[in-house]
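B., you asked whether I could sanity-check this one before it goes into the benchmark set. Here's the sequence:
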Amino acid sequence: MEPEKERLRPRVPKKRPSEEESETMPPEFRKEPEDHIQFETIRKNYAQETSIVLGFSFVIVGLLGFVIPYFLNFHLSYTNNIIHVVTGTLALWFGFDRNITAKRFCYIAGAFYAVLGLLGFVAGTPGIASVANPVEDRFLWRFIPEVLEFGTTDHAIHLLVGITFLLAAIMKFTVKVPKEGY
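And here's what the prediction gave me:
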């Protein structure tokens, strides 16, 4: 019944303030044409967004590793899971912080994971893992034997994550925002 009353009520056109009235209004309530607004271009990068997305991913994989140590053919040992949760928490911390700190984190984490992935392929030897996922692997790297071991899937993911972090720190885009004071 109420919507019907609203529909039947006569519509009164909204009154626009005249020029005299708008001059007496405080400046924050005056509507000025957008032609007079000056914009500035700000260069940003993808570091914050990437840190947040990968941070959540690291935390989820780290927590899932405690329950499913064979998740997606990774070698998710107890130590590896703790490292993932800590890395994810740091990525979230810096991702929600300022852009420059997220960018620095992306450079450091990107370099670390890219080198870790490359070292895994270089130092890896054929073998069977003794922790988490006991299957034969062509590039098994026993970083700390029976505690922290990485396989081919781990190396590929480390390389991908490292490259993603580095690209996020390097790539830039521009945003037009109104200048302050207008």
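One thing to flag: Residues 154 and 165 are 16 Å apart (CA to CA). Otherwise nothing jumped out at me.
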